[in-house]
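Title: Prediction job returns without error message
Component: structure pipeline
Severity: low
Priority: P3
Assignee: unassigned

Description:
Job completed but the reporter wants confirmation the result is attached to the right record. Sequence as submitted:
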Amino acid sequence: MANLRDVRRDAVFKAETLLADLDIGAAERVRIFDVIEDQSVWLTFEPLDRLFGWYQRVDQAAGMVINASHPAALQRFTAAHELGHHLLGHGASLDDEHAIIDGGQGNDPQEVAAHTFAANLLMPLAAVEHHLRRLGLDPARPDITPVAAYHLSVELGVSYAATVVQLASLNKIAWQELPSLRRARPLALKEQLVGQGPQYSRAAVWPLAATDNGRHLLVDTGDELYLHLEEIRSSGYRWMPADATLEGFSLLDDRLEGATEIDPRYGDARTRRLVFKAVNPGPRLVIVDLRHPWEPDGEPLERFALAIDIEGPRISPVGRGVSVNQQPQLVAA
């Protein structure tokens, strides 16, 4: 039987090599579906009941099927697992929850390798530590709550369950902490993180503040961005979304928090809450200007801006079949 330590080491090396070839830095999310399509592997989505995904190679052709019913973050991790089977030279594999989420702790060398590859491709140590710092945590001794683990999973673009397992694998949490973290429900964590659940329960929520100004984010259609910015009501200036923002996002909420207080002190800062829902795929901008409402065309006093790529679903409108990006190839063949 293969030595599992060697299996894991080889899978980590394969993931690190691919990240280097793709020139993906610690702050970037891996666009796993693009990577798979660039490898000329057929990417298909189908309802799979209890299976999360499967992989098969026939002669020179290879393909994978991902459960069409799963959230995008879980589909990404499943897809990375199946890509691991492909790049590591494995044969056919049918993968359920145990293989996808806990495969790295099993005894099947093939599943251990595929899981380790996926985790270290989408959640490499450098990326995890980068985002822990962004969350104000010490990467060497992080005190990771369920809410912080969920926030980390959003930044990395993977499922909450896969994230907490990788945190244990990277020694960022103790293995005995894993069961309690896994008992937390992502929807409840979303409500704790931003104060409410999203319109679509499976959508990711992104808490954003002034310190996020200038970032470049990759989000999915349906994701919600919760932006909190301070303004001084008595100054007459308020934060207002620019027209460019509404080309990619719908505005779900725009209110001054705490505005019902009686006789607030003159000059006190209040927090403007703006909630945007990603609706139109493509490269987009979120621009919010601090300006006088009666001077919509004047120069803003301040500007908050994000460059955001909104990823559309790869699943066709019928909810199944080959990735929409590969369908023209299928027709041509």
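Comment from assignee: result matches the submitted record. The radius of gyration is 22 Å.
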